[in-house]
Write a structure and sequence with these properties.
- By secondary structure, the chain is α/β, with parallel strands linked by helices.
- The chain folds into two domains: about 120 residues, Rossmann fold (3-Layer(aba) Sandwich), CATH 3.40.50; about 150 residues, Glycogen Phosphorylase B (Rossmann fold, 3-Layer(aba) Sandwich), CATH 3.40.50.
- Helix content is about 45%, strand content about 15%.
- The strands form two sheets. A six-stranded parallel β-sheet has the order 7-6-5-8-9-10, sandwiched between helices. Strands 1-2-3-4 form a four-stranded parallel β-sheet, with helices on both faces.
- It is globular and about 65 Å long.
Length: about 325
């Protein structure tokens, strides 16, 4: 999105992660964000949510500073789930932005439950990852890449069970497993075919993505579109995904789908490994279709922002 729309990307990191320091970290981030907006004096400000109180702060600053910059709220799916959806005035704040971006049709339907109409809502699906593959997978390889955040919607126990049921497959789990509520399970007793990488660099992740045979993406929550699935499509890789409505809508015949149980996961992976060439071709085809669709959606958003810009200059 940054390359296409040409905005300057600013990341304001937290200053603390514990429950006691987080409120002070948020305040520090608010101040730094507003200071940057004041210095740069932009025509358009893109803000990613959550946190869902950031729209309130930005709208208040625009009102009291008398600046006329437009606001685009780029809403991550979790904006519309607890706890963030419970922030008072969320719907009020979003309705006062110039555009509200959501990234799949399921979330677009969810926004109506909080009273957000269609006049500012923009569906901009996640673009397939722009991946440069420097290596290729060995045709005899049976490595499965499993990118994890170890959050509550990921059925980690089922992945462990699947690894035990399929000792001929190597499971490579990325991410910080110490965040997992059952982290003690990773210290001992894991099957030898389940490998943990912890945090890795982007270059190392892309190498694993290049050389793996199948990408496995799992969630227990509807409406989650899985970044890993877009990365797999961008890399033209076979996929096994959780059987949810939104994932079927987005990835269709380019993936095999499973229930979040060890037996179902192991069985789907065996099938994907057997059909890896066919699934890889379908993933490449889907990448082309999704690129065309994303470009059309992005063009429509760009046009609407240009129209708003002309109107503001006329005023």
């Amino acid at each position: 999105m940054q390359d296409y729309f040409g905005y300057e990307l600013i990341y304001v990191p937290p200053t603390g992660s514990s429950i006691y320091t987080k409120p002070f970290s948020y305040i520090s981030q608010w101040i730094k964000t507003l200071e940057h907006i004041k210095r740069s004096d932009p025509d358009v400000v893109w803000i990613q949510t959550p946190p869902t109180f950031l729209p309130h702060i930005l709208l208040s600053y625009r009102f009291y500073s008398r600046r006329k910059f437009r606001i685009v709220f780029d809403c991550h799916n979790s904006t519309f789930y607890e706890p963030w959806v419970r922030i008072p005035g969320l719907s009020w704040a979003l309705r006062r932005g110039d555009a509200v971006l959501v990234h799949n049709s399921e979330i677009a339907r969810t926004t109506r439950h909080i009273g957000l109409g269609d006049e500012r809502l923009v569906l901009l699906e996640t673009r397939p990852a722009q991946v440069n593959l420097l290596e290729s997978a060995n045709h005899s390889s049976r490595e499965v890449l499993v990118p994890c955040s170890f959050k509550s919607d990921e059925p980690v126990e089922a992945i462990i069970d699947a690894a035990k049921l399929s000792p001929d497959i190597t499971y490579i789990l990325t991410g910080n497993y110490r965040r997992y509520s059952q982290a003690w399970r990773f210290e001992e007793g894991l099957p030898p075919n389940l490998k943990l990488t912890s945090y890795i660099s982007t270059a190392e992740f892309n190498r694993l993505l290049s050389t793996c045979s199948v990408v496995l993406g799992l969630t227990t929550r509807e409406g989650v579109q899985l970044s890993v699935a877009n990365e797999a499509v961008g890399a033209g890789k076979p996929m096994v995904l959780s059987d949810t409505k939104i994932l079927r809508d987005l990835f269709g015949e380019a993936a095999l789908f499973c229930n979040n149980t060890g037996v179902s996961i192991a069985q789907a992976l065996q099938e994907a490994l057997s059909a890896r060439s066919l699934l890889a071709n379908r993933s490449v085809q889907l990448r082309s279709v999704r690129e065309v669709r994303w470009t059309a959606q992005a063009n429509a958003l760009k046009l609407s922002l240009d129209v708003l810009d002309r109107k503001s200059k006329e005023c």
